Amino acid sequence: MSIVNVTLDLTLYGCPMHYIKAREALSKMEREQVIQLVVNNGNAVEEVITSLRHDGQLCEITSTETLTTTIRVVKHHA
How many other C-beta atoms lie within 10 A of the C-beta of residue 57? Predict the structure, then answer.
């Protein structure tokens, strides 16, 4: 599996733009590449994870800070 090659800050976006921006970034990546997404705490975390998993991507929370959560995503599906 690839190492993380991109961290994408999605904290400026609300629903559904945070997911759309994440999906757009993943579309430019090869299978098995890894990206980290930084999203605002709250509904955004679950919305992004649920949507990306529905698309077939592998997602896990790697850290939670006061205001943000970092999600590690492995591109598993084209």
Answer: 19
